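Researcher: Here's a chain I'd like modeled. Treat it as a single chain, no partners, no ligands.
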Amino acid sequence: MTSPKTEYKSKVTVDTGLTRGRIPCPLLRAIGARPGDYLIFRPVGKNEARVRVSRPGRKPAKAKSR
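Model: Modeled as a single isolated chain. Structure tokens:
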């Protein structure tokens, strides 16, 4: 029996002047991210970051005027 993976790696590249990296799918599934969600990365220390999933909410419906 294999144990769950606790570490993921992703290569960082430079694409037309922008630093980019890809997030592994198993990690996205583990944090419950879905298509359309935003991932927010916040630095915690020198070599650490905290990630949070943000789901765009529905816009409130406009009240009907009579």
